[in-house]
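QA checklist item 7 of 12: single-chain prediction sanity check.
[x] sequence parsed
[x] length recorded as 106
[x] structure emitted
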Amino acid sequence: MIKVIIKKRNNDILEINVSGHANSAEYGKDLVCAGISTTTVGIANALVKKHFLEGLGIIDLREGFVYIKVNQFNQEIQVILETFEIILETIEESYSQYMKITKMEV
């Protein structure tokens, strides 16, 4: 199962952690994992293009794991992270047996 933890403060996203594998099909045919992986890499690329790694935050991206932490508030970055959140929620709506999103106010 893929586990997503989203930490927010006053509706601003501070951290997103995605870990695990969906195991919805055999390796190479798992469309849930493929969708989440593609989304994750696309969001990470968008953040890098917006200079996120230049003091605004941290991205740790590995197989089966992504961690995004915001160090400095930026409205444009928040829009990207909110888009990521909405995409993950959309996937969860259809494939809740393979992923779970937990949201925390910190």
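[x] summary fact logged: The mean pLDDT is 96.
[ ] second reviewer sign-off
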